[in-house]
Amino acid sequence: MQPAIAVRALEKTYAEGAAGVPALRGVDLDGHPGELVMLMGPSGSGKTTLLSIMGCILSPTSGHVQIAGQEVGKLSEKQLPAIRLEHIGFVFQGFNLFPTLTAGENVELENVELMLDLKGVRGEKAKNRSRDLLERVGLADKYTTFPSDLSGGQKQRVAIARALAGDPQIILADEPTAALDSQTGQIVMEMMARLAHERDRAVVIVTHDSRVLSFADRIVRIEDGLIAKKRPESEVSPELLVHSAAQAGGILIA
Fold first, then answer.
1. Domain annotation covers residue 15
2. Taking the complete model, does pTM exceed 0.85, yes or no?
3. Cα 49 vs. chain centroid, distance in angstroms?
4. Model pLDDT for residues 19-56, shown as the tens digit of each residue
5. Residue 246 domain flag
């Protein structure tokens, strides 16, 4: 099966001083439809940089990025939004909601009136689409509610609805449960898992949250800008070997 997204020999160096600071040093990674991949690693390991390049927010210094079979790694950062628009939904750690807009307006303005309009979805059809998205994430009754009156979990679900507005095949999320309590984090992760397993999306999540690892089909650890070597099962703690009850088989640790 062709991966929805693939990176090969990916390198990223940030300009700082004469030598620069390497954030990624030759990373290879695939994300497949129907799979939920979690990226883990210490702060500064390069995982958020990797997610940003996969999400067409940053350009790599070198290497290859293929999205739906199309090479995009050589595109300029001015060219990347069109690729992101067509293929990718991004869920940001800080929700990134406009405080003066309702939940429905946040989805409409951020993705419906802009993203869906670019995709030919306009007017009442776009508004109906935004209502459908909020209903899909369990927030149909929050359409007119402002972010200040939403809980952290509800804000995250609005952010997910916004990411789904363009019906992307790839969902990328940066620490989606970091600011949530355990129960709410479980709800958000159940939603992300359904996107992968029921809607056949490729889902890649950066996380430090050990409470949600059981939702992963594959865990990839990044250290010092490199994918860590696959660890033998004997070195993996027992709780990491427990998968979501809805899934067959164990977690793959890469």
1. yes
2. no
3. 12
4. 789 999 999 999 999 999 999 999 889 999 999 999 98
5. yes
